[in-house]
Every structure is written in structure tokens, then in C-alpha cells.
């Protein structure tokens, strides 16, 4: 682990980062992510992961129009479990020991979330995927990522997306969008930048937990971020 900047990290993956044009869960993308995780795992860095479910279902989305919000959010939690199991399977096939812990009890599929057990798994060299968000409606997987990162004493949140950092506007539709190399938490909140939701940003700000936003689809990027290479956008205290 001599070339790693961080000892333990929390990787936040959006559900959309699992999808391609043809599949809500792309086997190629999931396998590529698992290969990147294996590279990082082999350096000795301890990795926890929170996966979103937006590629399948999100409670706060047009899919859920007319539904009770609590019911819709619980459906979204189940979507995160599906993604978590897919990533676990790919990691195990790549030779990386992996555990899924769910905030919603489903013992046939995943362990229950227990903080001390999660930390023990990490110490034993296992990747731990935290599924089902916080197990409560009205909280996003961004907030779950911040919460779990603090609970496992991660040194940074790595936010993997389909773009290479944080921009002043959507770079997919605005070719003149400008990427930021560094931001403060207050910059993100005051500008309304889409890094993580306000609750997650506030949690990170209160606990001085840095967030690094980077392109997960570029092969080797997880390793580069863990090594401290200046890719993506760093959000931290000014």
C-alpha cells in the first residue's frame, strides 16, 4: 500500500453508472468496475461501497408518479440490492472476497448491516457493499454513502460517475461547461452543484470528509484516485 494516499475509502457508485444503452445492468461495465476494484484491493486499501439504484428504480423519479413515497423509496432500496449482488458476483469472479450488507433484513441474500462486522470484514481484506441505503424512506443513497463512510471511518468518499468531475452546468448538453478542479462544501451548496444531495454534503462538511468526483468508466481511475493523482474534482474544506 506504499503508493496509496488513503487507507480506507468509501466508493459511491450511481445506479446509472451500471447501465449502458441496451441494459439496465451492463455485464461489461460491472466486470470492468470489478477489475478496477481488484487493482485497488491488491494494494491493501480497504474499500466500502454504496451503490444507487437509479438504473432500475428510484423513489423520487417519474417512474414513481402517484405512488406513496415510502413505498416508492422501498422499491428503490430493493433496486440497490440487485445492483449490489451483481457487483458482488463480478468481484468474487475476479478473485476479490466481497460481502453485501443490507440495511433492510433479507438474510437469504445479504448480511444485516452491523457496523463492527463491516469494519472487521474490511480489516480482513474484504470489500463490503452496503445495500438498501439507510433502510429508511426519504434518504438518498448519497446520504447513505456519507453516513456509512463516517461509520466505518473512511478517509474519503470517491464518487464515481459517467463524467470526469463537477461542472458548472451539464457537460452532456453544454459544450462550454467548465470543470472545477477543487471546490469547498459551501461552494457546492451555494451554487447548487450536483455533487451529492445537500444532506450528504452537510454531513461531509461537518466532519471534514473529502469527496472526490471522477469518471468511473475510465479504466484504472479508481486506483489513480486512491493514489492521490489529481483527476476529477476534489470537494473539501477551503
What key phrases describe this protein's structure?
single chain; 238 residues; alpha/beta; Carbamate kinase; two-stranded antiparallel ribbon; 7 helices; 35% helix
Task: Give a verbal description of the structure.
Helix 1 packs across helix 2, helix 4 packs parallel to helix 6 and helix 5 packs antiparallel against helix 6. This protein has 238 residues and is of the alpha/beta class. Helix content is 35%, strand content 19%. Strands 4-3-5-2-1-6-10-11-9 form a nine-stranded mixed β-sheet, with helices on both faces. A two-stranded antiparallel sheet has the order 7-8. The model has no long low-confidence stretch (mean pLDDT 94). The chain contains seven helices and eleven strands. It has one domain: Acetylglutamate kinase-like (Carbamate kinase), CATH 3.40.1160.
Roughly what fraction of the amino acids lie in strands?
15-25%
CATH superfamily name? Acetylglutamate kinase-like
| Helix content bin | 25-40%
Number of discrete helical segments: 7
Q: How many beta strands in the DSSP annotation?
A: 11
List the secondary-structure elements in sequence, H or E.
EHEHEEHEHEEEEHHEHE
Total domain modules: 1
Summed over residues and divided by their number, the pLDDT gives a mean of: 94
CATH-defined fold name: Carbamate kinase
For the record, give the distance between the C-alpha atoms at the N and C termini, rounded to a whole number: 28 Å
Give start-end ranges of low-pLDDT stretches. Answer: none
Structural class: alpha/beta
Radius of gyration: 17 Å
Strand order of the largest sheet: 4-3-5-2-1-6-10-11-9
CATH level 1 name: Alpha Beta
* CATH architecture descriptor text: 3-Layer(aba) Sandwich
Based on CA inertia axes, which overall geometry fits? Answer: globular
Outline the biggest β-sheet. 9 strands, mixed
Amino acid at each position: 500500500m506504499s503508493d496509496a494516499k488513503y487507507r480506507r475509502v468509501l466508493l459511491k457508485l450511481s445506479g446509472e453508472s451500471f447501465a449502458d444503452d441496451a441494459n439496465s445492468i451492463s455485464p461489461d461495465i460491472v466486470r470492468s468496475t470489478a477489475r478496477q476494484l481488484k487493482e485497488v484491493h491488491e494494494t491493501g486499501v480497504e474499500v466500502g461501497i454504496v451503490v444507487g439504484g437509479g438504473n432500475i428504480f428510484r423513489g423520487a423519479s417519474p417512474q414513481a408518479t402517484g405512488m406513496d413515497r415510502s413505498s416508492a423509496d422501498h422499491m428503490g432500496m430493493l433496486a440497490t440490492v440487485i445492483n449490489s449482488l451483481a457487483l458482488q458476483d463480478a468481484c468474487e469472479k475476479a478473485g476479490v472476497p466481497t460481502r453485501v450488507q443490507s440495511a433492510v433484513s433479507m438474510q437469504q441474500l445479504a448480511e444485516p448491516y452491523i457496523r463492527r462486522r463491516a469494519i472487521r470484514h474490511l480489516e480482513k481484506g474484504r470489500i463490503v457493499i452496503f445495500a438498501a441505503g439507510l433502510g429508511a424512506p426519504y434518504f438518498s443513497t448519497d446520504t447513505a454513502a456519507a453516513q456509512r463512510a463516517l461509520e466505518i471511518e473512511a478517509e474519503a468518499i470517491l464518487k464515481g460517475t459517467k463524467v470526469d468531475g463537477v461542472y458548472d452546468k451539464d457537460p452532456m448538453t453544454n459544450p462550454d461547461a467548465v470543470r472545477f478542479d477543487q471546490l469547498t462544501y459551501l461552494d457546492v451548496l451555494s451554487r447548487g452543484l450536483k455533487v451529492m444531495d445537500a444532506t450528504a454534503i452537510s454531513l461531509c462538511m461537518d466532519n471534514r470528509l473529502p469527496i472526490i468526483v471522477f469518471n468511473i468508466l475510465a479504466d484504472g481511475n479508481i486506483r489513480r484516485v486512491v493514489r492521490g493523482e489529481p483527476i476529477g474534482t476534489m470537494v473539501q474544506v477551503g
